[in-house]
Amino acid sequence: MRYKLILSDIDGTLIKDDLSVSEENKAAIAAFRARGGQFVICTGRLIESVRGFIDGLSLNEQKIAAVGLQGAVIKDSAGKLLCCRAMDADTAFRIVRYAEETGTYCHIYDSDRVYIPAHNEINRMYAYFTGAPLCEKGVLSAYIRQNRFAPIKVMLVIERGSEDRYFKAFGEMGLVGVKNIMSSDTYFEFVSDKAGKGEGLLAAAAYLGIDPAETIAIGDNMNDIEMIETAGLGVAVKNAIPALKNAADLVTERDNNESAVAEVIRRFCLD
Asked: Is 89 exposed, middle or buried (0-12, 13-18, 19+ CB in 10 A)?
């Protein structure tokens, strides 16, 4: 089998807009795994918040079921932490303090939960769609400073079309040791410069003893570009943003609501 490992994004890629996995995708993934392939979810979410998908696809039978928090965290199927690439606490403090000073909503992550300043409509909706556990901590910059807490990810929720202003502001701050990732048109995220979905793919392949040339990556958004460019075969689903399509080796004929993942598996892994 030419491709032994598939890493797939979830939102806008593996799941439909109603947040379900199609039966066609389930069957194709099962057929790929029956031939010895490894199917790993690669997401910006916490790994625990995709546990339902892991269980529903029986991925807990694999050594690695998911790569989380934009490639910064890998756990084995028993929940043991294999890889965790946190940010520097001082850098995280500067990012979060800027968000607080400008009135921009922000929350931070460890490997298991989301730390929020207070419950509001933004994080309630985030928890509803992702299943992420929320932990209220008050002023997050103070929590980071007082506890020397090194977040794994920092996420700002910005207004659509305002990203250039944030890129400019953070660029002028001269932040080191982090990379910025836009995972949607409103999610402006930071992780360690040793993370990112491309690094997550390489780490997962290494743990499984698979050559990166034998991997497929499938995605739809900006945060998938590194993964797409790192994989042996980088695939953008039909509904992907133009930048990802330009970076991909292949664009599917189907979108996420039409079982695009199954299309890829049938074309490249079941012949």
From this structure: middle
As given in the structure block, the two tokens for residue 74 are: 């890998």
Summarize pLDDT for 191-232 with one digit per residue, the tens. 999 999 999 999 999 999 999 999 999 999 999 999 999 999
Q: Give tens-digit pLDDT for 9-63.
A: 999 999 999 999 999 999 999 999 999 999 999 999 999 999 999 999 999 999 9
Distance of CA 124 to the CA centre of its chain: 20
Same domain membership, residue 100 and residue 69? no
Q: pLDDT-derived band of residue 76, with 50, 70 and 90 as boundaries?
A: confident
Query: How many structural domains is the chain composed of?
Result: 2
183 shares a domain with 111: yes
What pairs with residue 75 in β-bridges? 66, 81
| Domain extent at residue 122 | 89-192
Helices (H), the chain: 23-34, 51-56, 89-102, 121-130, 140-147, 163-173, 197-208, 225-230, 242-247, 260-268
Contacts of 227 (CB under 8 A, 6+ apart): 7, 9, 42, 71, 196, 197, 198, 200, 201, 217, 219, 234
Q: What pLDDT is attached to residue 271?
A: 74
Q: Which of 144, 188, 184 is nearest to 164 (CA)?
A: 188
Which of 175, 192, 209 corresponds to the end of one domain? 192
Given a cut of 90, whether residue 103 has pLDDT beyond it is yes
